[in-house]
């Protein structure tokens, strides 16, 4: 599946994405594309390594989680225009996480 084809279909069809569930730091949305139902995640957290530097040596102090900077000020509603989620749909396609569920 090509992200540009999906983008064109969403602008043409004006299909809405529906929130499905949240698990392990991901919002999951369902959307109809090319008359088939797909699901994709939107990551809400990122892993971050915190370092302690002693002289020229950097030591990983801890792994931490933080809110994803990719979210910006986006408001995630129960229903949202699919075309508004194109950036996350494209990422899901690239990662093979845009899954046909029906």
Can you give a write-up of this model?
This protein is an alpha+beta fold and 102 residues long. The protein has one domain. It has helices at residues 3-13, 86-94, and strands spanning 16-23, 26-33, 36-43, 45-54, 57-67, 79-81, 99-100. The strands form two sheets. It has a five-stranded antiparallel beta sheet with strand order 6-1-2-3-7, covered by helices on one side. A two-stranded antiparallel sheet has the order 4-5. The chain is elongated and about 60 Å long. 16% of the residues are buried.
Spell out the blueprint of helices and strands.
Blueprint: H1 3-13, E1 16-23, E2 26-33, E3 36-43, E4 45-54, E5 57-67, E6 79-81, H2 86-94, E7 99-100
Antiparallel strand pairs: 1-2, 1-6, 2-3, 3-7, 4-5
Short description:
With 102 residues, this protein is of the alpha+beta class.
Annotation keywords:
102 residues, elongated, alpha+beta, five-stranded antiparallel beta sheet, two-stranded antiparallel ribbon
Number of helices, where a helix is a run of at least 4 consecutive DSSP H or I residues: 2
What is the overall shape? elongated
Number-wise, the strands total 7
Mean pLDDT: 88
Percentage of residues in strands: over 45%
Task: List the uncertain runs.
Answer: none
Number of domains: 1
For the termini, the CA-CA separation is 16 Å
User: Helical percent range?
Assistant: 10-25%
- Give the helix/strand class: alpha+beta
The radius of gyration is 17 Å
Largest sheet: 5 strands, antiparallel
Order of SSEs: HEEEEEEHE
Q: Within the largest sheet, what's the order of strands?
A: 6-1-2-3-7
